Structures are given as structure tokens and as C-alpha cells.
Give the backbone structure.
Amino acid sequence: MAPDTPPPMDCPTCGIRMNRHAEKLILADDDEGVESQLGGIIEETHSCPGCGDSATRRV
Amino acid sequence: MATRPLSIPVILGTARKGRMSAHAARFVVAQLARHPGVETELIDIADLRLPTDDAGEAIKDAGFAAKMKRADGLAIVSPEYNHSFPGLLKHALDSCLSEYIHKAVGVVGVSAGPFGGSRGIQGLLPVLRELGLVTIFWDVNFGAVGKVFNQAGELQDQAFVQRTDKFLKELIWMSETLRHGREQIALRS
């Protein structure tokens, strides 16, 4: 695993390894949690190849 | 072919009394339900009762959010009010975000006049993009909607069967393709 590879996430519903398929920049209108270079918060989205459930986490 | 059925709900994007868009939305649901392997339902934003003293994810409706999370694609039926889409539709859509990521969406425009809600659709597309949805390149435009449906909601212009079918086939293809991508294709690190 490359040093900058995010840790995997397991499905909260069925427990199998999820697929990390998106990083979404959430533009903030306050200073809380703002990533200085991008101007917002990065949220990863993971989806489960087994049951289709999805989960997110902030980077 | 996915083993789980595709979930493609239809959002009726207006709560205005006497809305003819309800006829269009019910028609789209019926047409979508004819496709094997697709589950659909009508989501009426008039039923959400979202508060107006806050906005965004702070006012999330648990039932609506669960349906958006389960969805593989969305069909939004939106009338055109004052050259745009309804503000209440924006209020409802803004209540979710992560639920929409990498999911397909198609828009059905409705208007009393001749343009079929096209100006409302044009205003809605950048909003959908920012929400993380992936728009398809087919729309359905119910112009002069008062002539397309009678007061009982029965379709009077059969041309809309084929137009809607083309729209839905593209929406289903995009929904299925994006589900494969969400579940199988990793974002590069």
C-alpha cells in the first residue's frame, strides 16, 4: 500500500471491504475544518460491492 | 447485469396546489415500473414537511435521506416557475449530499407554455452537478401540459410514450453503469 493510500473501510451493513470511489470538496462558509489549499472539507465516499450500502468519512 | 434491482425513484419537485406536474410524475413512475429489474416509487416533496428556519443537511428528513442513499438514479419532475425550478425543490435536494455521489439523474420539465420547462432544467443542471449527481443527456419536456394530460391525469399525446422511453433507457443505463463504478472501480490514490 502506498504511503498516501487511505485506509480501507468495511461496510457497516455486511462487513465486506468497500470501494472508495469519490472525494467531494464541501465548500464551507465558516473556518471549521477547512482545508487551507482547497477551501473546504474533503469527504470520501465508499460503496459496498456486496449490498450496495454507502458510507462517508472526512479526510 | 446486477443481481439487485436498480432503485430509481421519481421526485415530484413541486408542492403547488393544482400542479399538473403530478400527472407527469405518475406517468414517469408507470413507465419506469415497466422495466424489469428496476424498482421505483414517487417521492412527493410536498410530503417532506421540511422546516424553513434552517437549510441543508441540518434539516435532513430521515426517510428522504434513506431513499436517496438507496437510489441508484433519480428522475426529477420539475415544473418551471418564473424561468427556473421551484425553490422548494432546491430546499429538498440540499438536505442531502453524500447520498447523491456518483448517481445518475435525469430531469423531466413541465410547463403550461410551449418550452416544456427547458429553462427550469437549464437552471437545475449545475445544482445537480454540484450535488455529485451525474446528469444524462436526455430530457423530457412536457410543454403545454394542460393539453398533454386531461384533468384525470390520462395521457392525451402518445408521442410522450416513446420520448419518455428513450429518456428512461438512458437513465437506466447510466444508473447501472455508475453503480458498477461506485462498487467496483476505485478512485486513484
Remarks:
- The two ends of chain A are 18 Å apart (CA to CA).
